[in-house]
Design brief:
- The protein is mainly alpha-helical and 415 residues long.
- The chain is built from 16 helices and no strands.
- The protein has helices at residues 11-22, 34-58, 64-84, 89-122, 131-134, 152-182, 186-198, 203-217, 224-248, 252-260, 265-276, 278-293, 297-302, 321-330, 334-362, 371-392.
- α2 packs across α3 (64-84), α3 (64-84) runs antiparallel to α4 and α12 runs antiparallel to α15 (334-362).
- The longest helix is centred in the N-terminal third of the chain and has 34 residues, at 89-122.
- The protein is extended and about 95 Å long.
- It starts with 10 loop residues before the first helix and ends in a 23-residue tail after the last helix.
Length: 415
């Protein structure tokens, strides 16, 4: 019996054995160290102390905003000074930039939380009443208690208006975004410039445009459909711009692979580009919906205001949740103000529900199919196999690996 020669130890193994024999401590690769936390807390405490000293003892300064601004400036300076004791110049600038970005993000989260909590707190008196969601304000006035009247007319109007607006803007915006990316040229550059300019269009201008063209020029009455057209004018450039950016991020190699297989341009867009960008396109629709669902002035100009429920979007005035909120909070009566904040809370909940529904519909990644889509793919594969067999004159195979769904084992599937 021959004995294999012993393999010589590699450099990595020798380094590990040396470090183990010497008792070397493993170095932490975490980005957050204890010295960073101490520097952050120390700079914050010193900044607050110095600012209080300046405002209370040394200088005739006052005001909460000024106190926060001075404290934040001193905090950045002191934090940079403490970090400079251990790091060089680029590292100090990197830490300062990270602190600024994270603090701005914290400010945005705090501001959003304050808006949500304040709205819910002010509308707490109206939200517990069931009639607030099942009645309109046709038989309730400013002096009536919260047990009478509701916002059902505003909920119906908002849902109808945003549905019509989405039915107009989603297909139009997607087609325009595909055109901007797949058909380049002078006209595409012109359309992109117009879209970018319209993203900053004031809402009152969109309302005046629909009011002048649809109501005055064409002779239509104020209605929910006219309000939907005004909202569509506001939502369309947002959806086109966001979808354009998302489609532009799709790798060109996917298009080239599809063209190499002999696929036409429209089939490449439908089966490759759009499924790959599904999640981003859903985000673009959400952004456009959020822009349109909170507009007040276009609805006031094109649909008017009514205290009664109007389920017909083609005729008669129709109110929305933002417009109802605006009308409620104008009243000096506490019950009407509570109704206004309750309406704003319902609007936020509606936006959240639409956001969740859009994420459920478009949140799947590229290549992930539902059971129904998987079944259609199996049926299409079987049909193609039968067609190829008919052309060659041979009998079609009853089962192929191509026909087997991913979630069905081959040995348990019945023929």
């Amino acid at each position: 019996m021959t004995i294999a020669p012993e393999r010589p130890a590699t450099t990595a193994e020798r380094a590990v054995s040396v470090s183990a024999s010497a008792g070397e401590r493993r170095r932490s690769v975490s980005l957050l160290r204890a010295t960073d936390v101490y520097a952050l807390l120390g700079a914050a405490a010193a900044a607050l102390s110095l600012t209080w000293l300046l405002f209370a003892r040394l200088l005739p300064l006052s005001g909460t905003i000024g106190f926060l601004v001075v404290a934040y400036g001193l905090f950045l300076g002191l934090y940079g000074l403490l970090v400079s004791f251990d790091e060089n110049g680029p590292a100090v600038r990197d830490r300062l930039a990270a602190v600024v970005v994270q603090s701005l993000g914290l400010v945005m989260v705090v501001a959003l939380g304050f808006v949500v909590v304040f709205t819910l707190w002010e509308g707490r008196k109206a939200l517990p009443h069931l009639n607030f969601f099942t009645q309109d304000m046709a038989e309730a006035g400013p002096l009536d208690p919260l047990s009478a009247g509701g916002i059902l007319h505003a909920i119906v109007g908002t849902l109808e208006q945003i549905t019509f607006a989405l039915a107009l803007t989603v297909p139009t915006g997607m087609v325009c975004a595909v055109f901007l990316n797949e058909v380049p040229g002078r006209f595409a550059r012109f359309v992109r410039t117009v879209v970018e300019a319209m993203t900053a269009l004031p809402s009152i201008v969109a309302g005046l445009f629909i009011y002048a063209t649809v109501i005055l020029a064409l002779g239509f009455d104020r209605s929910g459909l006219a309000a939907s057209l005004a909202l569509a004018v506001m939502m369309l450039p947002i959806i086109i711009r966001a979808a354009d950016v998302v489609i532009r991020l799709v790798p060109g190699t996917l298009r080239e692979a599809s063209y190499a297989l002999g696929t036409s341009r429209w089939r490449t867009v439908w089966h490759v580009v759009l499924p790959t960008a599904r999640s981003g396109l859903t985000t673009s629709v959400i952004l456009g919906t959020a822009r349109g669902i909170g507009e007040t002035s276009p609805v006031l100009l094109t649909a008017g205001f009514t205290a009664e429920i109007n389920g017909d979007p083609l005729s008669g005035p129709q109110v929305s949740l933002p417009l109802a909120t605006f009308e409620f909070v104008k009243s000096p009566e506490p019950t009407m103000i509570a109704r206004g904040f309750g309406t704003a809370a319902v609007l936020m909940a509606l936006v959240l529900v639409l956001f969740v529904v859009a994420r459920v519909i478009g949140g799947r990644g590229p290549g992930q199919l539902t059971r129904r889509q998987e079944h259609r793919r199996v049926q299409a594969s079987r049909h193609d196999a039968e067609r190829f067999a008919a052309r060659s004159g041979r009998p079609a195979p009853r089962d192929t690996p191509m026909d087997t769904p991913r979630d069905t084992p081959m040995d348990t599937r019945s023929e």
